[in-house]
Amino acid sequence: MKVVLSGSTGFIGGEILTQCLSHPYITSVLVLTRRDPGDLAENPKAKVIIVKDFTSYDELTINELKTADAAIWCMGTFNGDERVDIEYPLTFIKAIKTRPPGSTHFRYVHLGGAFTEPPPKQGQNERSLWFYANGRRVRGVAEARVLESAEDGSQSEFTVYVVKPGAVLPKNRAILQRCILGDSLSIKINELGATMVDLAVQGNEQKVFHNPEIIKHGRKLQEKSI
Length: 226
Known about the structure:
It contains 7 helices and 9 strands; from the N terminus they run βαββαβαβαββαβαβα. By secondary structure, it is α/β, with parallel strands linked by helices. α1 (11-22) links the parallel β1 and β2.
């Protein structure tokens, strides 16, 4: 299968890229990036697509994206940039939804966060937030909008998953932090990566995964691979 990946140069995206390239069911990874990733282009499973503007794909790029079976979206900000956090993923989803009727089922996996703030319901006021207020609100809107994109009825063969990890820790140097934060607030990067890749490949009845659920799912996958 062919998987699209954004945010591959980041800490989380880099781990997911590694897992995608080594996954036996994934035959090709379309890497969306702004800059030349160097040696990655030499990997036979990777195809690098340089994107100058993530709010406007050219026709060649859209046609390439339509051949994919899934996407893992890891691009985002901490401070809350509406263009990056909301417009970029929604533009991508809009492009994918131009696939012709009868296309294979497409799975979209979105990297959210444990502390994001959902938009207030009609008639409610925004809550006061003590830290990263704008970032949490913007990313909360992004999560809601991408989930809504699977419910608009425009394409039945399209599923969205949102994963909401806490503090993401390196897999080999996380003992102390994990003891302090626990499974409710922290996760090893390899567990997060395993869960996101599996959702892209296999799907799941559950659509939103919170930190403890990501850990549980990731550990099961890792036990199977031993």
